[in-house]
TrEMBL record:
The chain crosses the membrane at residues 14-34, 194-214. Keywords: Membrane, Transmembrane, Transmembrane helix. This is Methyl-accepting chemotaxis protein.
Length: 220
């Protein structure tokens, strides 16, 4: 067969097909990895959101608002709230669940509750100021709920979601947030990649088999 003025043999055609096939497999795998990461982050964000929804549904708004106003850790509801959030954190394998309140008068955010153990160096006490509240927290307070935020902090890399905490009149007065460690997300990514590598290996074996059979046919 002539191609560009050059006679191309059947074997060369097969090699060209192999190169194109391998190139396509690499491209498909790359795109697949990107989509797999997006899917994993979305699934993790949804898991956190579902946990926060369960938590908010169980809040006693009257007691919670009193706790926010007094900022008294001896308040019985503070211990009850922490216990419930710690249980949800453990059951749903989250890194942390915490609540932030914005003092509109002084334009500052402070922590209301944190589900980490009190002896954890990263534990955030009631009334502790948050000087670097993220845009996700600000947006959630304004009704633009954020789900599946992939971000890195001094404590590690997390996927986080945020939930509005509303009073009886439907006004948002606090933000509940939850984090899941990205290591839990990468487990899903590794599984996805193993499947992709398996598909690549099978595809290459099939291509090799085709080349082998074509070679035998040419010999005969």
């Amino acid at each position: 067969m002539l191609m560009g003025g050059k006679n191309v043999t059947g074997k060369e055609k097969i090699y060209a097909v192999i190169i194109i096939a391998v190139f396509c497999l690499i491209i498909v795998t790359g795109v697949g990895n990107f989509r797999a990461k997006q899917l994993a982050v979305d699934l993790a964000g949804q898991r956190v959101s579902n946990t926060l929804t369960l938590a908010v549904a169980d809040f006693d708004n009257e007691k919670l608002q009193e706790l926010i106003q007094t900022q008294n850790q001896q308040n019985a509801y503070y211990g009850e709230l922490r216990a419930k959030l710690m249980q949800l954190k453990t059951e749903h394998q989250l890194e942390n669940i915490y609540m932030l309140y914005k003092d509109e008068q002084n334009k500052v955010w402070f922590f209301v509750v944190d589900a980490r153990a009190e002896d954890d160096p990263a534990h955030l006490a009631l009334g502790q100021l948050e000087n670097n509240a993220s845009s996700a927290v600000e947006n959630t307070l304004k009704g633009k709920v954020v789900q599946g935020e992939y971000h890195t902090t001094s404590l590690g890399t997390f996927v986080s979601s945020y939930q509005e905490v509303k009073d009886a009149g439907g006004k948002t007065y606090a933000v509940l947030a939850g984090d899941i460690d990205v290591k839990n997300v990468t487990e899903f990514l590794y599984l996805t990649r193993y499947v992709q590598f398996g598909i690549m290996a099978v595809s290459l074996l099939l291509i090799g088999l085709i080349v082998y059979l074509s070679g035998r046919k040419n010999i005969n």
